[in-house]
Design a protein that fits this description.
The complex is a heterodimer of chains A (166) and B (272). Chain A is α+β, with helices and mostly antiparallel strands and 166 residues long. Chain A is built from five helices and six strands. In chain A, 33% of the residues lie in helices and 17% in strands. A five-stranded mixed sheet of chain A has the order 3-2-6-4-5, with helices on one face. In chain B, a hairpin with a 2-residue loop joins strand 6 and strand 7.
């Protein structure tokens, strides 16, 4: 049992996008705030802060989860991936990101990091979804620019590309 | 919105978690998947002294068949239950309801038992447990007890759980041959809170219909295997008895209409 005082900062360490990171946080600090303000990341976005909008979705042990409904102390020892994990080391976009660009699946881009992380997990879970299934999955994200049409097209394009490669 | 400060305990066993509850009493709250609890904390609707995180307790992460029920531990995530290959055969009602629970991104973290403990009147999982006459297992430092679903949920966001107790498992009775199961709901968008959720079980001699989202907890009615006008009249009477209300999401009249129409639809589906 480890009991952490609410008024002190506690050391935590976890794997972020393949590298070990550490820092300190009060128990009440949300993972999203830890990533943005303690580690200085800009990819993970915060929208509603109560789990509805999906902008902060990231992967914890490869499960898509809301960063705003996770306390930083909870990911001690875990594996966390944010949108920064998708592109290659030279900034070359991955297939999903390229498809988003090609199909105009984003406009302002605020919801995009969360959607990309959801889709990353979802296409592992369901490699060949149909449009209805994709729309059902995307109901966990709020996008006020695109109407989701471009996202569905981009995802279906990636499904076809990956099928052709397999 | 950020929560107020709280002490945090990562429990490694049920014994540690209930010891924490015994020590801190009503100031302690259990954190499992956090998909309801953390929004409540972020909104400062609750202000616990101590949050006891049970999400890493391995002994609570299981699905097992025990007697005539499927028992699901308190750290078991909804996504894991949905992916259980036996779900559609063992608990068909839950298999039909789970896709309506939140979203892909919240079911990956949210737990079955957390939804039961939260006891939202429009939630699908409490409705399923009540419909199937399931049970919950509550544990404290001084012992363990079982409660029928109908006795556990006492009203809106309230249960018969004592402050020193935690919900350690839920028991869903296994499907009976010759009984049909169906579930449906109306929400503004897929995954939103249900305006009205309905579940039906139909056997040769009996119809059971359960409704969530109208009264302050799941409400269940039982009829003989009626049909036609007789069923319509019974649905209409039940829709009025539920005492629906007008709110920002829907009018009472719309809720009654949903009970009549969705009720009819799930009963017909469960019949086949």
């Amino acid at each position: 049992m480890s009991e952490l005082s609410g008024t002190a900062r506690h050391n935590i360490s976890f794997t972020l996008n393949g590298e070990t990171v550490s820092g300190s946080a009060e128990p009440r600090m949300l993972l999203t705030d830890f990533l943005n303000y303690e580690l200085g990341l800009t990819g993970n976005h915060v929208g509603c802060e109560h789990g509805v909008c999906g902008a902060c979705t990231l992967l914890i042990d490869d499960n898509p989860e809301r960063g705003c409904l996770t306390f930083a102390v909870q990911v001690d020892g875990r594996d966390v991936k944010t949108v920064e994990s998708l592109a290659g080391r030279e900034g070359d976009l991955n297939d999903l990101q390229l498809a988003f660009r090609k199909h105009h699946a984003l406009q302002c881009g605020y919801c995009t990091p969360g959607v990309l992380m959801s889709l990353t997990a979802y296409l592992e879970h369901t490699p060949e979804p149909n449009e209805e299934e994709l729309r059902d999955m995307l109901s966990g994200h709020i996008c006020r620019c695109t109407g989701y049409v471009g996202m569905v097209k981009a995802a279906l394009d990636v499904v076809e590309q990956r099928k052709a490669k397999a | 919105m950020k929560p107020k400060a709280f002490d945090y305990m990562r429990a490694n066993s049920v014994d540690e978690a209930v010891a924490g509850l015994a020590k801190t009493g009503e100031g302690a709250r259990i954190l499992a998947g956090g998909q309801s609890m953390v929004p409540i904390l972020n909104f400062r609707l609750a202000d616990p002294e101590l949050l006891i995180d049970i999400s890493r307790i391995k002994e609570l992460d299981y699905i097992k068949i025990d007697g005539n029920a499927v028992q699901i531990g308190a750290a078991t995530r909804q996504a894991k239950v949905m992916a259980w290959p036996e779900l559609a055969d063992r608990i068909p009602l839950l298999a039909k309801a789970l896709p309506h629970v939140g979203h892909f991104q919240t079911r990956s973290r949210g737990t079955i038992c957390g939804s039961l403990a939260h006891a939202d009147p429009s939630s699908e999982i409490p409705l399923c447990l009540a419909m199937l006459d399931g049970e919950v297992i509550l544990k404290s430092a001084s012992g363990e007890r079982r409660l029928a679903a109908a006795d556990f949920q006492t009203g809106m966001l309230s249960t018969a759980k004592r402050d020193d107790e935690m919900l350690v498992a839920a028991r869903f009775p296994i499907a009976e041959a010759g009984t049909g199961y169906a579930f449906d709901e109306m929400a503004q968008r897929r995954g939103d809170f249900a305006i009205v959720a309905v579940a039906a079980t139909v056997s040769a001699s009996k119809i059971r219909l359960g409704v969530g989202g109208v009264a302050d907890k799941p409400t269940i009615v039982e009829w003989g295997n009626i049909a036609g006008d007789e069923l319509d009249d019974a649905l209409n009477a039940f829709a009025w008895e539920l005492g629906g209300y007008d709110d920002v999401h829907a009018t009472a009249r719309y809720r009654r209409e949903l009970v009549r129409r969705l009720g009819r639809r799930v009963i017909e589906e469960a019949r086949t």
